[in-house]
Specification:
The structure is a single chain. This protein is an all-alpha fold and 207 residues long. Helices cover 79% and strands 0% of the residues. The protein has helices at residues 2-19, 25-36, 39-50, 52-62, 64-68, 72-94, 108-120, 125-138, 147-174, 176-182, 187-206.
Length: 207
């Protein structure tokens, strides 16, 4: 049983890490926080953004049948995500760039909550984990009904997502001065423009 718990955790961690490499709200938020604040704040934001993995993977594990009855919710969540990215992009584009060495005095908990909010409105998480669990089960890679195994798997999804966000925060912080120099302090507009393109793309895909 212990080996299966460890396997469930490590498997979920690896899948979640790979699945989190995408242009989504949390990744953009972590990058933006690392550029405008500091590494600690970016890691806290990434931590908050990883927590919803527990929720969505848990729903996929324990309530897959119930979720299928509310399939239409996913459509609305996709539009909400596009709207969040769109507003985030406009704020960045029209926001004045700050000094590279300036650090804001904001409570750590605020970054965690902000990350959670961004992560909650990620419509890809639930169908992603439903698909992954269906694949793992049908191929007998992970077949279990034990609560401990399911709990370990859910914790692994959060761990993998956080590991990716920590890496993003680390790399962005180390290249912070380089990014500021290369973009000539127009990084907000550049990042905002990229996010705007992603938001518009998602909007057309959802239509």
């Amino acid at each position: 049983m212990t080996l299966l718990v460890i396997k469930s955790f490590l498997l979920a961690t690896a899948i979640s890490f790979a699945g989190s490499v995408q242009l989504g709200p949390v990744n953009f938020g972590t990058i933006h926080t690392a550029l405008n604040k500091n590494k600690r704040s970016a890691i806290l934001f990434g931590l908050g953004g990883s927590i919803p993995e527990l929720l969505y993977s848990g729903i996929a594990l324990f309530g897959a049948t119930l979720v299928l009855n509310f399939e239409g919710i996913q459509v609305y969540l996709r539009y909400i995500t596009s709207a969040i990215l769109f507003v985030f992009a406009l704020v960045l584009i029209f926001r004045k760039s700050v000094d590279a060495n300036k650090v804001y005095d904001i409570k750590d908990s605020n970054y965690v909550w902000a990350g959670m909010l961004f992560g909650l409105f990620n419509p890809q998480l639930l169908p992603f984990w439903l698909l992954i669990l269906s694949y793992l089960g049908s191929n007998e890679i992970l077949v279990t009904q034990a609560f401990a195994d399911k709990a370990a798997f859910s914790l692994g999804t959060m761990a993998g997502a956080f590991l990716l966000q920590w890496l993003v925060a680390e790399v962005t912080t180390r290249k912070r001065e380089f990014i500021f120099l290369k973009l000539n302090k127009h990084y907000n507009k550049v990042l905002g423009s990229i996010i705007l393109i992603v938001a518009i793309f998602q909007l057309f895909v959802n239509t």
